[in-house]
Amino acid sequence: MPAVVAALALIAAQAFTGATANAAPPAGACQNPDSARAEVPDLPWAQQMLEPQRAWSYSRGAGVLVAVVDSGVDADHPQLRRPGKVLAGRDFYLAGSYPGNFDCVSHGTGVASIIAADQISGVGFAGIAPDAQILPVRISDRDMSDQGQALQIDPQVVGNGIRYAADQGARVINLSLAGLDDFAAIRSAVAYAVSKDVVVVAAAGNSQQDTTTELSSYPAAYDGVVGVGAVDIDGARISASQIGPYVDLVAPGDKVLAATRVDGHAYEDGTSFAAPFVAGTAALVRAAWPQLSAAQVIQRLEATASPARGGADSHAYGAGIVNPYRAVTDGLDTAKAAALPAYVQQPPDQAALDEAAWAHGVTTLTTWLTVAVVAAIVLAVVAAVVVPRGRRRQWRPGRAAPVPVEPAGAEPPDQLFLL
């Protein structure tokens, strides 16, 4: 076992119990491997929220290699076993020339499944970019001790794994690990990957104890890295998800479904399982927009994020919740907008103006003639009624007939009523 030179916490997945495991890691590689789990048929809430299938008619991540630097990836899982889905990779934890396509604890398998698990009959869960390839890079054999504490990892092993992934042509690297200390071996390896145009995605960490203290987090805080926090089904930051300027985006990280080694699924918590939602979305974008640099992909992920509770550029929520559909489809028509033609003022049509003026004049004249005719008729009628009457009375004023006086009514006698 490599010497532990510093503390770098591999963010927790829970230890599992269940049926007997059937996977076959190299002899002696796993002292106490986790057991298989039952399949979960339901469509998970995280996939319902993000709706990655909306983007699949435009991109499924084909041709993009995503490195999972983690506890390994079990290539025998039914949703990962399609030929070419999970490459052999490499084990940097054990001495020798072991591959990385086995897993003792399911952490790396779960992360890889969120990125690229295939759809299979009877299971609602699938990865964000089901046609992406996975490069497993094994840098640890366990994520938790028997006492439930995060285990330490050799930073040099992590750095070696990151450099290997970049050299193997990975377009995206997922780092579901975090620590409070800045290690030169990891910092330089991340810078190397960024220089090779790799989108590096890292978990923000699960060490938050309150709502105000900002903790350090590496490798999320390194330049060129997308730091990912975790939210729950209501879009609220989970209490352990760290707060800081390194949080660029958030994604589901509370009771999210992921594959387990050998077979089946388990519900997981933490920013470890939020990061692969962003890594998978980055794979979708790199497949749909191959001309974009890693920096431009990151810019696109942030610009198309769904609004989160913290508002824009929050240290708790970053730019918002990753949005696979918008990240892929916004601005798909890359052709420049056609320039509007120059405005040329046309000379007036004098003939049309003359015709309009003539029509207006005719209308006005007709209106006045009609008014005059109506007035003449009214005067004639008045004259025909008034003149003969005036002549008969010799134009003397007349008096109205007097109004008859009604006799005063007699007052009724007083009466009594039964009330």
From TrEMBL:
<keyword id="KW-0812">Transmembrane</keyword>
<dbReference type="InterPro" id="IPR023834">
    <property type="entry name" value="T7SS_pept_S8A_mycosin"/>
</dbReference>
<feature type="active site" description="Charge relay system">
    <location>
        <position position="70"/>
    </location>
</feature>
<dbReference type="InterPro" id="IPR000209">
    <property type="entry name" value="Peptidase_S8/S53_dom"/>
</dbReference>
<feature type="domain" description="Peptidase S8/S53">
    <location>
        <begin position="61"/>
        <end position="320"/>
    </location>
</feature>
<dbReference type="GO" id="GO:0006508">
    <property type="term" value="P:proteolysis"/>
</dbReference>
<keyword id="KW-0732">Signal</keyword>
<dbReference type="InterPro" id="IPR023828">
    <property type="entry name" value="Peptidase_S8_Ser-AS"/>
</dbReference>
<feature type="signal peptide">
    <location>
        <begin position="1"/>
        <end position="23"/>
    </location>
</feature>
<keyword id="KW-1003">Cell membrane</keyword>
<protein>
    <submittedName>
        <fullName>Type VII secretion-associated serine protease mycosin</fullName>
    </submittedName>
</protein>
<feature type="active site" description="Charge relay system">
    <location>
        <position position="107"/>
    </location>
</feature>
<keyword id="KW-0472">Membrane</keyword>
<dbReference type="InterPro" id="IPR022398">
    <property type="entry name" value="Peptidase_S8_His-AS"/>
</dbReference>
<dbReference type="GO" id="GO:0004252">
    <property type="term" value="F:serine-type endopeptidase activity"/>
</dbReference>
<feature type="transmembrane region" description="Helical">
    <location>
        <begin position="368"/>
        <end position="387"/>
    </location>
</feature>
<keyword id="KW-1133">Transmembrane helix</keyword>
<dbReference type="InterPro" id="IPR015500">
    <property type="entry name" value="Peptidase_S8_subtilisin-rel"/>
</dbReference>
<dbReference type="GO" id="GO:0005886">
    <property type="term" value="C:plasma membrane"/>
</dbReference>
<keyword id="KW-0645">Protease</keyword>
<feature type="active site" description="Charge relay system">
    <location>
        <position position="272"/>
    </location>
</feature>
<keyword id="KW-0378">Hydrolase</keyword>
<keyword id="KW-0720">Serine protease</keyword>
<comment type="similarity">
    <text>Belongs to the peptidase S8 family.</text>
</comment>
<dbReference type="InterPro" id="IPR050131">
    <property type="entry name" value="Peptidase_S8_subtilisin-like"/>
</dbReference>
<dbReference type="InterPro" id="IPR023827">
    <property type="entry name" value="Peptidase_S8_Asp-AS"/>
</dbReference>
<dbReference type="Pfam" id="PF00082">
    <property type="entry name" value="Peptidase_S8"/>
</dbReference>
<dbReference type="InterPro" id="IPR036852">
    <property type="entry name" value="Peptidase_S8/S53_dom_sf"/>
</dbReference>
